[in-house]
Write a structure and sequence with these properties.
alpha/beta, eight-stranded mixed β-sheet
Length: 596
């Protein structure tokens, strides 16, 4: 039976494929793909875990005191029987072999299948046995987590392609939510669409899906409960609808829409090496946001003229708390710099905290993360300054990489003059340590992210100490409007068009120009064509975005006259409804270049 699940549309387009459920478990489960050559060893991991849990349960049963209820012994027998039942461990092997899931993911996927089967049983007693299956599975998951915590795909390992389900349909990810670290692993894998139970337009999953140009629907509430493993799904990223097991007629309609989108992408792709110059001759710098060194090649292919934001924190995540050392970081930064072939690379120092926690956290950090508001806690430069040894390691690694190309350092979430002084002192000490060790490094510019209102209001003073600034619009909007963008209860109040937000961005750009300092926007607004005209009208000439968005933004740049846009800016900034006024004033000009 076909059903529809409604959520929030966050990334346009259509995705069609089989559902892959990332189950919600009481035990945190790692999700990664296993290359072909490691499938046997992954099955062995599962077997070892099963045998260990079997021994554990047998020992518990043997050591039961004489006064223990007989039901307890019978319960342990049930758990032992379930542990060796082919419907649990045998079917779990199939997920490993056929889908290349790691053992934990395969087990949680099979647990979802079994849980649904128990829920559909008529007999109440049998339905209640679902809890026994869950308890056995969680024992296995806990053993697997202890055996190899935080395991990820080894560098350079092959990521398997999707199974062929009688056609060329890819896979669609369905989850309660997707952590940032998991998004990095999934983004190069087989998924071409996302559905999540929670989240809003500005949740991390939504932002990544949009930047990757992957259709996505978030905040679908019951999606992971209503959708089953291997269901056929259509994600309508324009309407915010997920169609489960669509009819042939509906499926064909959406396939036609997919083909139309692919033609549009191909047309835009022809612009990738065209210089980004407006109709009145203004050159615009379109830079790329990247997370890992390998993304640099993708940025070049997309036509980026540099990296405006290298999110270094993703080198620190998904490692089971084992932080990268100076040499490992140096290699990563150097590889990205070399890959960009002399073009500028802006490396942001680690932005840990809020929606991007580390696997290993202190008690104080855990308290901030889970009991208090993490967006207002120990994050970004605050965390780096609280870990001076780690911070100097990162600064030394970045400086060493600067010997191989054009490197700039970007400091996140600066708000206080004291933070600026401590940061520049740490940088000076890092340089001195490299001098003492005889290590070479190049000249680097140092910039600040403007992502809290205090920084935007004090940007003139900040520019006394920094060479450039970069506006992080995602957090600037969040902090200006007091909206936790990861909370779907209030995410509808997240408004990039709010007059206060626009005024802060415009003033930041104006002050940087007045001081002769560089200014860019690296937040999501930079990659959203709805804001391109407005930012150009404000005088912005440097945009940094995901590589997948560069062609669309370039097309917009090629079609506008910045003099005409600037003339309409005062009316937009003073309007009660800036979005409506911008739509009226910034209509596309008639003459526009062809993408041919």
């Amino acid at each position: 039976m076909s059903i529809q699940v409604f959520g929030t549309p966050v990334s346009r387009g259509v995705a069609i494929g089989r559902a892959v459920l990332v189950a919600s478990s009481r035990v945190d489960v790692a999700h990664y793909f296993v290359p072909t050559e490691r499938i046997d060893s992954e099955i062995e991991r599962l077997r070892v875990a099963r045998d260990a849990v079997s021994t554990e349960l047998s020992t518990l049963k043997r050591d039961l005191p004489p006064e223990a209820p007989t039901e307890l012994s019978a319960l342990l027998d049930v758990h032992l029987m379930l542990l060796h039942d082919e419907s649990l461990t045998g079917a779990t092997k199939q997920w490993i072999v056929e889908r290349h899931y790691n053992a934990e993911w395969a087990l949680s996927a099979q647990l979802e299948v079994l849980a649904r089967q128990f829920d559909e049983m008529d007999d109440e007693y049998l339905r209640e046995r679902k809890a026994d299956v869950e308890q056995v599975a969680e024992r296995l998951l806990r053993f697997l987590a202890r055996a190899k915590p935080g395991q990820a795909v080894p560098a350079g390992a092959e990521v398997p392609r999707a199974r062929d389900f009688g056609g060329e349909e890819p896979l669609v990810l369905v989850a309660n939510d997707v952590a940032p670290a998991d998004m990095i692993q999934f983004k190069r894998s087989v998924f071409t669409g996302f559905v999540t139970d929670v989240g809003g337009r500005t949740s991390h999953t939504a932002i990544v899906a949009r930047s990757l140009d992957i259709p996505a629907v978030v905040g679908a509430r019951e999606a992971s409960r209503l959708i089953r493993q291997d269901d056929w799904l259509v994600i309508d990223g324009d309407a915010g609808v997920v169609i489960v097991n669509p009819s042939p007629i509906v499926l064909e309609e959406y396939r036609f829409r997919q083909r139309q989108s692919e033609l549009e992408r191909a047309r835009l792709n022809r612009l990738r090496h065209t210089p980004a110059v407006t109709l009145d001759g203004q050159a615009v710098e379109l830079l790329a946001n990247i997370e890992l060194p390998g993304d640099a090649a993708v940025a070049l292919e997309a036509g980026a003229v540099g990296v405006g934001l290298f999110r270094s924190e993703f080198l620190f995540m998904n490692r089971g708390g084992d932080l990268p050392g100076e040499d490992e970081q140096f290699v990563a930064y150097r590889d990205a710099v070399v890959a960009m072939q002399g073009l500028p690379v802006t490396i942001r120092t680690v932005d840990i905290g809020a929606d991007k926690p580390l696997d290993r956290m202190s008690l104080q950090e855990l308290r901030h993360e889970h009991a208090l508001n993490p967006a207002l806690g120990l994050r970004a430069i605050r965390w780096s300054l609280s870990e001076p040894d780690m911070f100097r390691q990162q600064l030394r690694a970045i400086l060493r990489a600067s010997a191989y190309g054009n490197v700039r350092i970007l400091i996140p979430m600066v708000a206080h003059m004291g933070e600026i002084r401590l940061t520049l002192d740490a940088l000076a000490r890092a340089r001195q340590q490299l001098d003492d060790a005889g290590c070479s490094y190049g000249q680097v510019q140092v910039g600040a992210m403007i992502e809290v209102p205090a920084a935007a209001l004090a940007v003139g003073r900040f520019l006394d100490h920094f060479d450039f600034v970069s506006v992080g619009t995602n957090d600037l909007i969040q902090y200006t409007l007091a909206i936790d963008r990861s909370d779907d209860a209030v995410s509808h109040l997240f408004d990039p068009w709010h007059p206060a937000v626009l005024r802060l961005i415009a003033d930041t750009i104006a002050q940087a120009h007045a001081r002769g300092k560089g200014v860019s926007v690296c937040g999501e607004m930079a990659g959203d064509a709805a804001f391109t005209d407005l930012l150009l009208a404000m005088g912005l000439r440097s945009f940094s975005m995901h590589p997948a968005r560069i062609a669309a933004i370039k097309q917009r740049v090629l079609r506008v006259d910045t003099r005409r846009l600037a003339a309409g800016l005062p009316a937009v900034l003073s309007a009660e409804d800036p979005a409506l006024e911008a739509a009226r004033l910034f209509a596309p000009v008639l003459s526009a270049p062809s993408a041919a």
